[in-house]
Specification:
Blueprint: H1 4-13, H2 27-32, H3 37-45, H4 49-68, H5 82-92, H6 94-103, H7 115-135, H8 143-162, H9 183-202, H10 216-220, H11 246-250, H12 275-278, H13 281-300, H14 310-316, H15 319-337, H16 347-372, H17 380-385, H18 397-418, H19 420-428, H20 432-439, H21 455-493, H22 512-528, H23 530-548, H24 557-563, H25 567-574, H26 600-619
Length: 631
C-alpha cells in the first residue's frame, strides 16, 4: 500500500457508490464502509470468500502494473487512469469478444452513459470474470465454457445495475442462481465438473477408445457453436451437454437408464495404421507422384530437359490420375475414421464428407476415361473451340481441360500459401460468402484460425524445403531409380526361368516377382531418406546461424576472462535504455567498447546486476562463498 499505483487501484475498487447492498450481508462492514466492488459481487452471485480475497489482489496488481507503465505518466499518480483500465479490460476480454463475434452474438459488456460510472462498471466486469475464473477449478481448461458463463452473468449484472424489471414476476431482476454462500460453486461449477468427471471415468485410464469418451477439448468444442445457447440460463439439466450425468440428476425418482454422451464435435481419433497416410496425405501424395514421374522418365530414357516430348508428356500426365485415386482414398478415410462422431455433427458437415467422396470418385473415373479418349468423334465446331490446345499434341484435349479443372482448387491453395496475409484475413472473416467458400475445404472451428507465419518466415521455410527436396529427388533419380531400369528390363526379357525354390507366381509373365524384390528396398529407402536429408540440411543451416550469432565463441575460462572487460559495454548496449538511438548495420563482428576510467557510471550499472547474479549463484550453491572456488 506504499506505492501510489497500488493506492490508485485500491481506491478504484472502493468506489461502491450507487450499489444496492443486501440488507443481511455483513451489516457491520457495510456501516464501516469496509466493502469494495468484489464484496458486492460476492453478495450478489454467491462467490467464495477466499476466492474474493485472491482475485482482489490479482485485480489490484493488474491495474497497478498497467497504471504505472502508462506513457505519459498520469497525473495525479494516486488516481487510476482510464487508459490502464481499458488496457487490462482489453486483455481479459479479448477471447470473450472474439467468441461472441464468432457465434454472431452481441457481447454483454454494456457501459452506462455517465462518465463517472463507466470506470466502476468496467471494474465490475473484470472482477466478475476473475471471480468466475478463480472458482472454476478444472473448468478453466474450457475457456469458451467460461465465456458462456460470463456472457450470461454479465447480462444479469447489467440488469442489476440498470434496475431492469422481470416481465414474469414484475420484480427487479436477480441472479438466476441467487446470492447464497458458495452458490456459484454448487449450482454452476459442480454440474459442469460432474460432466468432466463422468467422461474421465469412461476413459478407463486411457485404455478405452477415444471415440467413447470426451476430454476437456471435446467438451469445450460444444461451446464453439451457437447451439450452446440452447442450455439457457440457468442451465437446463436436460440439456445435451449434461447427457452423461442425466442419470445422476434423476436419482431414485425415475427408472435408471444408461447415460448418454456429450459426443465430439469436430475430431474423433480412431486408432488405426491408416492415420499414417491420412495425417500426412499431402506428403505421401507428393512422394508417390514424384516417384511415378521419375520412374516414367527413367523408363523412357530421357533427360529432365526432354520431358516436353509428346510421348513423354503424355505418359507423365498420368500422375494426375494417381493423384485423383489418392484423393479418393483420403476422402474415404475421412468419412470412415470420423464416423463415430457423426451423431454430434451438423447435417452440413456430414453432407460435406459424403460429397467429397462422391466428387473424388467422379474424378477418379473421369480422368482415366479422358486420358484414354482420343477425341476423334468430336464435332468440328467443338474442335475449333479447343484449337488453342494444339501445341500440346499427343494429349487428348478433353483430358487437358479436365486436368485444368481438377487443378483449379490446388492453384487457389497455392496462391493462398504464397500470400499468408490473404489467407489469414479469409479465415478470420465472418462474412457469409467467405464462410460458404470455406465450407468445402475445412470445418469452421473457433481456434486456430489465421495462425500462419509471416511472409519472410514463409520464404525462408520454402527455400529450405525446396533445396532439400531438390537434392533428395536428384539423388533418388540418378542413384536409386535410373540405375535399376536396365536390370529391370533385362529381368523382364528373360523367359523360361527355372527356380530352385518354389515360385510364388508360377504363371506370371516377365518375372514380376523378381522385379518387385529388386525395387522394394529402393522404394522403402526412397520414402524414408527424407529424414537423412533433413538432418544434413538442418546441420548446415544450424551451423550457419550459429556462426552468424557467434555461438560457442567463448570455449574456455581464459577466453571468458579476456572478454569480461567488454561485458559491461554489451550490457549497456542491449539492456540499458538510452535516449540516443544508434543505427547499427549488419556485421559478423560483435565487439563492444571496454569501460574506461571516465565511464565509471556505466560500469556501476553492470556491477549491480553482476553482484545479483553472483548472490543468486551462491544461494543456489552453484558457487562457493570462498573466492576462487567453484563447486
Amino acid at each position: 500500500m506504499q506505492l501510489e499505483e497500488v493506492k490508485a487501484a485500491v481506491g478504484a475498487l472502493w468506489n461502491t457508490r450507487g450499489l444496492n447492498w443486501p440488507s443481511a450481508f455483513e451489516q457491520r462492514r457495510q456501516k464501516a464502509g469496509d466493502l469494495d466492488l468484489l464484496d458486492w459481487l460476492r453478495a450478489m452471485f454467491g462467490f467464495q470468500r477466499d476466492n474474493v480475497r485472491n482475485q482482489r489482489e490479482h485485480l489490484i496488481l493488474l491495474l497497478a502494473n498497467s497504471h504505472i507503465r502508462l506513457h505519459p505518466k498520469p497525473e495525479p499518480l494516486n488516481k487510476l487512469d482510464e487508459r490502464a483500465v481499458d488496457a487490462v479490460m482489453n486483455k481479459l476480454f479479448k477471447n470473450y469478444k472474439t467468441w461472441c463475434k464468432f457465434l454472431g452474438r452481441k457481447h454483454s459488456l454494456r457501459l452506462p452513459q455517465g462518465e463517472l460510472e463507466i470506470q466502476q462498471r468496467k471494474i465490475l466486469y473484470m472482477g466478475l470474470y476473475l471471480l468466475i475464473w478463480g472458482e472454476a477449478a478444472n473448468v478453466r481448461f474450457m475457456p469458451e465454457c467460461l465465456s458462456y458463463i460470463f456472457h450470461n452473468m454479465a447480462y444479469e449484472l447489467h440488469g442489476l445495475l440498470a434496475g431492469n424489471v422481470s416481465i414474469v414476476t414484475g420484480e427487479n431482476i436477480k441472479p438466476s442462481y441467487g446470492g447464497d454462500d458458495e452458490a456459484f460453486l454448487r449450482k454452476v461449477i459442480t454440474p459442469l465438473y460432474r460432466v468432466i468427471e463422468k467422461e474421465a471415468k469412461k476413459s478407463q485410464n486411457g485404455k478405452a477408445p477415444h471415440s467413447v469418451w470426451c476430454n476437456y477439448d471435446d467438451l469445450n468444442e460444444y461451446f464453439w457453436s451457437s447451439d450452446c445457447f440452447s442450455l439457457g440460463w440457468p442451465m437446463r439439466d436436460d440439456g445435451e451437454f449434461f447427457k452423461s450425468t442425466r442419470d445422476l440428476a434423476q436419482g431414485r425418482k425415475g427408472p435408471q437408464r444408461k447415460s448418454g454422451s456429450t459426443g465430439k464435435s469436430y475430431f474423433v481419433e480412431t486408432r488405426t495404421f491408416w492415420h499414417t497416410f491420412r495425417s500426412f496425405d499431402r506428403l505421401w501424395t507428393f512422394y508417390v507422384l514424384a516417384l511415378q514421374a521419375m520412374a516414367i522418365g527413367a523408363w523412357k530414357g530421357v533427360s529432365p530437359l526432354e520431358i516436353f516430348q509428346k510421348d513423354v508428356l503424355y505418359a507423365l500426365s498420368s500422375i494426375f490420375i494417381t493423384a485423383a485415386v489418392l484423393r479418393l482414398l483420403q476422402s474415404i478415410l475421412d468419412l470412415a475414421l470420423n464416423f463415430p462422431g457423426f451423431h454430434r455433427w451438423k447435417f452440413t458437415d456430414v453432407l460435406r464428407n459424403i460429397l467429397k467422396v462422391i466428387v473424388s470418385l467422379g474424378w477418379a473415373v473421369a480422368l482415366p476415361l479422358c486420358y484414354l479418349h482420343t477425341f476423334k468423334m468430336a464435332s468440328e465446331k467443338f474442335r475449333d473451340v479447343l484449337s488453342f490446345l494444339n501445341p500440346l499434341r499427343g494429349i487428348p484435349p478433353l483430358y487437358i481441360m479436365a486436368v485444368a479443372l481438377y487443378l483449379l482448387p490446388n492453384l487457389l491453395a497455392a496462391v493462398l500459401f504464397i500470400f499468408p496475409m490473404l489467407r489469414r484475413w479469409i479465415e478470420n472473416s465472418d462474412w457469409h460468402i467467405i464462410r460458404f467458400l470455406l465450407w468445402w475445404s475445412q470445418p469452421r472451428i473457433y481456434v486456430g484460425r489465421g495462425m500462419h507465419e509471416s511472409q519472410f518466415s514463409l520464404i525462408k521455410y520454402t527455400i529450405f524445403w525446396v533445396s532439400l527436396l531438390c537434392c533428395k529427388f536428384a539423388f533418388s533419380y540418378f542413384v536409386q531409380i535410373k540405375p535399376l531400369v536396365k536390370p529391370t528390363k533385362d529381368i523382364m526379357n528373360i523367359h523360361r526361368v527355372e527356380y530352385e525354390w518354389h515360385e510364388f507366381f508360377p504363371k506370371a509373365k516377365h518375372n514380376y516377382g523378381a522385379v518387385v524384390s529388386l525395387w522394394m528396398p529402393v522404394i522403402l529407402v526412397y520414402f524414408m531418406d527424407t529424414q537423412i536429408w533433413y538432418a544434413i540440411f538442418s546441420t548446415i543451416y544450424g551451423g550457419f546461424i550459429g556462426a552468424c550469432d557467434r555461438l560457442g565463441e567463448i570455449r574456455t575460462l581464459g577466453m571468458l576472462r579476456s572478454r569480461f572487460q567488454s561485458l559491461p559495454g554489451a550490457f549497456n548496449t542491449y539492456l540499458v535504455p538510452s535516449d540516443k538511438s544508434k543505427k547499427r548495420g549488419f556485421s559478423f563482428s560483435k565487439r563492444f567498447d571496454e569501460i574506461t576510467t571516465n565511464r565509471r557510471s556505466e560500469a556501476a550499472k553492470f556491477a549491480q546486476l553482476w553482484n545479483e547474479v553472483i548472490c543468486s549463484f551462491r544461494e543456489e550453491d552453484l558457487i562457493s562463498d570462498r573466492k576462487g572456488c567453484v563447486n
